[in-house]
Design brief:
This protein is an all-alpha fold. It contains four helices and no strands. Helix 1 runs antiparallel to helix 2.
Amino acid sequence: MKQELVQSLRAFRDAITKNGHADASKFLIEADEAVTNKGALNDIDSEYEEQLFELITDIEAIENVSVPNKERFDATVELIETTLYENDED
């Protein structure tokens, strides 16, 4: 489950850098599902969290991302951050 989230984000990154944004948002849908339905952020360690945020930072640095993909990515990051915050409170 945890790897599914990272794999989906990597696939999104690769799609926007190598494939010219074609179908990139489908990978964000997979990432969202990994978070909301599969518990990809439950009981994670600091190393995994660091890996996740390094990947997010790498994606944020990519230029020329289409507006729809950027908005969808921002929503996914918000979901990840919110879920991590809620898990920390528990």
